[in-house]
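Task 17 of the worksheet. Students: predict the tertiary structure of the chain below and write it out as C-alpha cells. Keep your answer in the requested format; marks are given for formatting as well as content.
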Amino acid sequence: MAGLNVSIVFFFLVVGVCQALRWLFKRLLSPGAYSCLARELAGSFQLCASCLELRMLLEIGPWGGGFGPDVVLTLLFLLFALHGASFDGASANPAVSLQEFLLLESNLTATAAKLLAQGVGMGTGWAVTKLYWSWELTHFHLIQNLIASECSSSIHTSLHHAAFVEGTCSFLFHLVLLKLHQSHPIYRVPALAATVTFLTYTAEPFTGAFFNPALATVTTFHCSGNSFWDYVQVYWLGPLAGMLAALLLYQGNVPRLFQKNLLYSQKSKYKIPKARVAAHVEGDEPHRKRKGEKSNSEPRA
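Model answer:
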C-alpha cells in the first residue's frame, strides 16, 4: 500500500499547487483574463494530472498492488468532489464550455480562450505527470514506464457502440449539470461527483469513460489500435452530441441557434385563480349598474 500512499500525496500536491496558482492569478490578472484563461488552465492541469495517476492505479493496481476497483472508484469520487470544491467555476471540459456558449452565457472570444487554456492545461498536466512517473517513486510507476510505449486503445467495443457509450455518458452528465446549475455547491458538488463515479464504473470497460474531449485527447489519442478519425468520432463527436441532446431536452431549444421552444409550450408564469377572477367580475357588476343608472338619470336635450 506504500505505492497507493505516494499517489494520494501526489493528488494533494497537485490540488495544492493549482490552488496556489489560482490564488496568485486572481490577484495579478483582471477578472476576465482570470475566468477565461488562468482558471481554466489551472483546472485542466489539475484534472489531467489527477486522472492520469488514477487511471494508472486502475490499470496496474488490481494485479500490481493488490487492491480492487472499489479503492480507485472511492478515490475518483473524493477527487471529483475536491475538484468541484476547488475549481472556482472552471469546467476543464470543452463540451461544458461550448454548452455555456450555446446558452448565451459566454461569447465567442471567451469560449475560444477557454478552449485554448484547457488544451494547454491538459498538455502541461500530461507532461508533468510523465516526468513524475519517470522518477519511479513506486513500483507502479516502474511498471507504467515499461508499458507506456505500448499503450493500447481504450476502445474495447465496436466504433458505433463506443460513440454511443461516450455520448450517453455525456448526455447524463450534462443533464445533471444543467439541473443542478443553480443549486448550492454543498448539494451540486457531491451529486456531480457521484454521477461521474457511476458513469465511470458503468462505461469504463467499453471506452474508458472520458466524456471530456480534451482529457481523452491527451490520454488515449497517441495509443495504437485505432485511427485518429476513430478517436475523433468516439471522444469528440460522441460527447458533443450528448451535450446537445441534453441541452435540447432540458431547455427545449438552443438559445444560440434558435429561440423557438420545440418541446415545451410557453405558459404564463403568473396565474390568477378562477375563484378570484369570478369574485372580481361579480364585484364589478354593481359598479357598472351604478354607472348605468347615473348616465340614465342625466337630462336629455
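Marker's comment: The chain has a mean pLDDT of 88. The radius of gyration is 27 Å.
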